Amino acid sequence: MQPGTERRQADIALSDAAIDWLVRLHSGQAVEADHQAFAAWRQRSREHELAAREAETIWHGIGIAGTRVQRAAGTKLTRRTLLGCLTLGGMALAGSTLLRPHLFADHSTGTAERATIALPDGSIALLNGDTALDVDFSAGKRHLNLLAGQALFKVRADASRPFIVAANGGSTRAVGTMFDVDIRSRDVVVTVVEGLVEVMNGIRAGSRVSAAADQRIRYAADEPPSSAEPVDADSETAWRRGKLIFNRRPLGDVVVEIERQRSGRIMIASNRLQVLEVTGVFDLADPESILSIIEQTLPVKVTRLPFVTILH
To answer: Which of 65, 81, 98 is the C-terminal boundary of a domain?
Structure first.
């Protein structure tokens, strides 16, 4: 047997042992002594700790499915079985995307797809990948609802009908301008390229903040809008030119951007990783290279599985 093969089998054996520990701890019958024993087990070596982390990442990816599969099979739950559960979960997740707002939206894009939409008043909406948009125009109003993703709006001036884009509990109002609305992992970011906009929060009436060209405003559904802050609008909307430009962007937001350009979900294993900062200029058409650079430059390991990629 080759040394590399022996090492691989040893790694798999540790992975199976770690998964066996998690099954025991989540069985509902574990006592404090079991938790202490697992803590001691994972401290035996660096390889034991890595196996424990991998097992925890995969386990959280399938939730309680692992315990159910073990009960149904009546056998030991191994790494291969658990990865199979995660793969099936990924298939279900992929199928469930048909139930997202994209199915019912007036306009939508798929993964890595961008579209230019001519609106009824002569305005233009540019949709990034994996984006869904509803349009409700009449003689007295111009109202749009960004259901998912990111879109840039080139608004034709019409003082009698303000142009309003709703997204995640807030709205952006403009008369004649160009601005970008981006639904990110934790909030919505409105970036003004030209003109002036007013951002409002739907929950807290009266929370209104204005922003001009090269400024942006953030808001969350349960928080008032932030103050306008300076920003390079061309860099923030570089996706229009086939680029992604990040200046200390949280990894959680970067993952949202990557998911718009590649198939499959990306899971971040911990909140600690969510806030790691990413800086660089990347090619929108090559999202895999972004993941590779993240792995090379940040304390992050990328594990690629069918339908799901795990950052841990």
So the answer is: 98
Beta bridge partners of 218: 189
Strand partners, 309: 266, 304
Q: Which residues contact 279 (CB under 8 A, 6 or more apart)?
A: 246, 247, 248, 249
What is the 8-class DSSP label of residue 238?
G
Residues linked to residue 246 through DSSP beta bridges, in sequence order? 280
pTM of this prediction exceeds 0.85: no
DSSP H or E run through 139: none
What single-letter amino acid sits at 33? A
Half-sphere exposure of 159 (CA within 13 A, CB side): 0
pLDDT tens digits, one per residue of 49-64: 887 877 776 665 544 3
Report the alpha-carbon angle 297-298-303, nearest 5.
105
Q: What's the one-letter identity of residue 177?
A: T
Q: Enumerate residues 6+ apart whose C-beta is below 8 A from 297.
A: none
Distance from chain centroid for Cα 126: 20
CA 66 to chain CA centroid, Å, is 25
Burial class (CB in 10 A: 0-12, 13-18, 19+), 140: exposed
Structure tokens of 275?
């806030």
Give yes or no for a contact between 62 and 55, defined as CB atoms under 8 angstroms apart.
no
Q: How far apart are CA 285 and CA 201, in angstroms?
A: 34
* Last residue of one domain, picked from the residues 220, 238, 256: 238
Separation of alpha carbons 215 and 177, rounded Å: 13
Residue 26 burial (CB count, 10 A): 15
Query: What is the domain extent for residue 256?
Result: 242-311
What is the token pair recorded at 168?
Answer: 């995640």
Q: Indicate if 124 and 213 belong to the same structural domain.
A: yes
Interval 165-208: pLDDT, tens: 999 989 999 978 999 999 998 899 999 999 999 999 865 555 78
Q: Residue 239 CB: number of other CB atoms within 10 A?
A: 21
Question: pLDDT of 262-300, one tens digit each?
Answer: 988 888 887 888 999 999 999 999 999 999 999 999 999
